[in-house]
Amino acid sequence: MGNKEKVFGQKEPGADYISRFGAYVVSPNEHQQVILVQAPNGAFFLPGGEIEPGESKEETIKRELVEEVGFAGKIASYLGEAVDYFYSRHRETYYHHPAYFYLMTDWQKIGEPTEQHNQLSWHTPEEAIHLLKRGSHAWAVKQWVNQKDNDHA
Fold first, then answer.
1. CA angle, 84 as apex, 78 and 88 as ends, to 5°?
2. In contact, 61 and 140? CB cutoff 8 Å
3. Which of 78, 93, 80 lies closest to 19, judged by CA?
4. Sorting pLDDT into bands at 50, 70 and 90, what band is 52?
C-alpha cells in the first residue's frame, strides 16, 4: 500500500509545469507528535525539500534537516511517493512536485537550524494532517499512523 503513488492537487489544462522533486520526513518525538516547519508565509510542511542536482534522496534529507530543524538522524523506513500539482503565487509558477517520504524515528538535535526564517512546532498526527499545506505531506503522516497502528495490532 505504501508504494502506490498518490496524486494531490489539480493539473490545470494548458499550464506549463516545472518538475520539482523533493524528499521529506515524518519525525515523531517520544510523545508521538511530529515536527512541522512553518514557512514565513504561514504554511506548514514536513521537514525536507527539493532534491538538488547530484543529490540522493537521503542526502537531501540530511541537508534539509540541518537547514530547517537542526537535526541529524537515520531513516527508519520508506513511507511512499506522492505527487502534488500546485501553483506558487510567490514564484508565479506551476509545479509538478513528486515527493518521497520517509519515517525518521532515530534523530537528535545537533544545533540551531541554519535557516532562521522558519518556525518549528510539534503537533499530534491529527493536528499535523489538518495544518499541512500539501496533500502529499498529510498523506505521509497518515501513512505513518497506519504503519504504527499495524505494528501494534
1. 130
2. no
3. 93
4. very high
SS3 label, residue 66: helix
Residue tagged 544545533 (cell numbers): 111
Contact partners, residue 72, CB within 8 Å, separation at least 6: 62, 65, 66, 107, 108, 110
Give per-residue pLDDT as tens, 58-81.
999 999 999 999 999 999 999 999
pTM of the model: 0.92
Of 91 and 138, the one with more pLDDT: 138
Helix/strand number for the chain, H first, E second? 3, 11
CB-based contact 108:74 (threshold 8 Å): no
